[in-house]
Design goal:
The complex is a heterodimer of chains A (243) and B (312). Chain A has nine helices and no strands. Chain B is built from six helices and 14 strands. In chain B, strands 1, 6, 7, 8, 13 and 14 form a six-stranded antiparallel beta sheet that branches. A four-stranded antiparallel beta sheet of chain B has the order 2-3-4-5, with no helix packed on it. Chain B has a four-stranded antiparallel beta sheet with strand order 9-10-11-12, with no helix packed on it. The model of chain B has no long low-confidence stretch (mean pLDDT 84). The chains are: A mainly alpha (243), B alpha+beta (312). At the A-B interface, helix 7 and helix 8 of A face helix 1, helix 4, strand 4, strand 7 and helix 5 of B.
Chain lengths: 243, 312
């Protein structure tokens, strides 16, 4: 109940934040982002205290963690105007909304399964989520870049590199972890396959020169990422079905 | 750039896009369609071919660069990727594994049947244990085996746990699962003995018409943990509790029950895998990550696409 109240408050504040940033364009917005982050952190801390483990072991917790990383990255962004920050904050709004709508049985705090009790949980999962956040940023920046290329070109390139690097780190550490837990570093598990597909698409984006094709491929990569995150867990069985 | 070189450059680019697309489509289809032929394809030479082409294209692409610096920048990130792909391929083709169920104190030898080349090696289970999060034995925290490994004339004791394998290069032992085999459990209640595994045995019925149900729920400190349930005549569960092999007497509700005989075996199921390229794969992936980090996040950025168009 307390968690739902916090999530609902977070959602409302995020909607207000995005709206104000786009319409009113305040210059000093960092304090508002810090407040939003504090609410996220409270939710994560409460779950950590109840469960006794880092709170990103199932889909619901990962959604909260994802939005936390997203807002943190937004806070750390420099040299970007308020309106752009407002547009960039929209995906986090959607993620929090999905988390709020999550069924009660998916929100139950449960102890970690034996296979998840590993140091790699702290390396693999955050790496993957930083990569996911970068892809979401990339998608929004692709739209913004199509309006004003010179303003967003450098940031777009940086986000592309960041997404590829962190996805690579996540995939490689996931392979190490798979080797430790299941005895196989790669088993063409649907989650692994679709993470590799997302990675490949982003690598192709890096090599393509035509901006229209780049823009199209970014959204294909975003679709592949969403399928990796949600589609695989709910539609395809596999070793990664921890949701 | 001469026309011939330009056409070759464009051919390289197109080949790269086609190769990558084939890999993406094959992998996507194999995860979406439950098709045996498709699954076999992923493990066949037909899937290796686009990868091989990708490696060849990547190796020879720097020939299009005029400037040495551009060639160097290209090689820094792309060649470690090639090495990683080659080592991954070699690892996939050489890795072998087999599952073994170990009974306590009985050495298990490996012969050619498992095709692991472990002729003079044996594993002996000394002890197996399961750790739970709480005393209700609902959620397993971890499970582990203490084993003795005899390998190449050497003897070593090790503990293998879930996500904490034991390595003796090029072999690795993983804790996979476990198995209970309970043959007898005899309980004394109110002066009568009940063999719970006997097919014709009637349930333990109390004076007020309720009856007991028992089933194993866990294993801890070398004892099987059983759950007892007191069920009413109409099938409603009235109460439940636990007892273990170590308890000769246990109190269930207001009744005293005695565990007088118990025969069981708890086996540990381990997996042994052979992966001679494992360490090399680990090192090459670290090198690739480092190369990517240096290439992407250095202060002096090199826009490889821009450089490529200037130098080709």
């Amino acid at each position: 109940m307390f968690e739902n109240i916090l999530l609902a408050s977070l959602l409302i504040l995020l909607v207000i934040f995005s709206y104000c940033m786009i319409v009113f364009k305040p210059k000093k917005y960092h304090i508002y982002l810090i407040i939003l982050l504090m609410i996220e952190l409270t939710i994560l801390l409460v779950r950590f205290l109840i469960s006794g483990h880092i709170p990103f072991a199932n889909i619901y917790e990962s959604l909260i963690f994802f939005s936390f990383i997203y807002l943190l990255k937004l806070l750390l962004l420099q040299n970007l105007d308020s309106k752009s920050i407002g547009f960039l904050s929209i995906p986090s709004l959607v993620i929090v909304f999905i988390a709020l709508l999550f069924p009660a049985e998916g929100k139950v705090v449960s102890p970690l399964m034996p296979a998840l009790r590993s140091i790699w949980l702290f390396i693999h999962v955050p790496s993957i989520f930083i990569g996911y956040v970068s892809v979401f940023f990339l998608a929004v920046l692709t739209i913004l870049r199509s309006i004003n290329n010179s303003k967003f070109k450098t940031l777009w390139n940086n986000e592309l590199k960041s997404s590829i690097f962190f996805l690579t780190l996540g995939i490689i550490t996931g392979a190490y972890w798979g080797d430790q837990s299941w005895g196989r570093f790669w088993s063409w598990d649907p989650k692994e396959s679709w993470a590799a597909i997302t990675w490949f698409i982003l690598v192709v984006v890096m090599h393509v020169k035509n901006r229209k094709i780049q823009n199209l491929l970014i959204f294909v990569a975003l679709f592949a990422l969403l399928f990796t995150y949600f589609g695989v867990t709910y539609l395809l069985p596999g070793l990664h079905s921890y949701g | 750039m001469t026309n011939k070189k330009l056409y070759l450059y464009k051919a390289f680019k197109i080949a790269f896009y086609i190769t990558t697309s084939i890999i993406i489509v094959l992998v996507a289809l194999s995860s979406l369609l439950v098709n045996e032929k498709l699954q076999t394809l992923l493990r066949s030479w037909y899937f290796i071919l686009p990868w091989f082409l990708l490696v060849v294209l990547t190796i020879f692409f720097p020939l299009f660069f005029k400037k040495r610096n551009s060639r160097k920048e290209y090689i820094i990130i792309h060649y470690p990727f090639i090495v990683l792909i080659i080592l991954t391929f070699l690892s996939f083709n050489s890795i072998r594994s087999a599952s073994f169920e170990l009974e306590k104190n009985i050495p298990t030898s490996f012969d050619n049947q498992f095709d692991l080349g472990l002729d003079d090696t044996s594993l002996t289970l000394k002890n197996f244990d399961i750790e739970y999060y709480d005393q209700n034995f609902n959620d397993i925290k971890s499970y582990k085996s203490e084993i003795i490994i005899e390998y190449e004339g050497k003897k070593k004791t090790a503990v293998v746990e879930v996500s904490k394998p034991v390595r003796f290069y090029p072999y690795t032992v993983y804790q996979n699962s476990w198995a209970f085999y309970i043959s007898d459990i005899v309980i004394e209640f109110d002066g009568a003995e009940y063999d719970l595994f006997s097919q014709n045995e009637s349930p333990i019925i109390t004076n007020d018409g309720n009856y007991f149900e028992f089933h194993p729920i866990g294993y801890s400190n070398s004892n099987i943990i059983y759950e007892w349930n007191l069920i009413s005549a109409v099938g409603e569960r009235l109460e439940k509790g636990n007892f273990s092999s170590a308890d000769e007497l246990f109190i269930a509700n207001k009744y005293k029950l005695f565990l007088i005989e118990e025969n069981y075996i708890v086996n540990s199921i381990l997996e042994v895998s052979y992966n001679p390229f494992g360490p090399y794969l680990a090192v090459s992936s670290v090198i690739f990550l480092l190369a990517m980090f240096l290439q992407f996040f250095r202060k002096k950025e090199i826009d490889s696409l821009k450089e490529e168009s200037e130098n080709v």
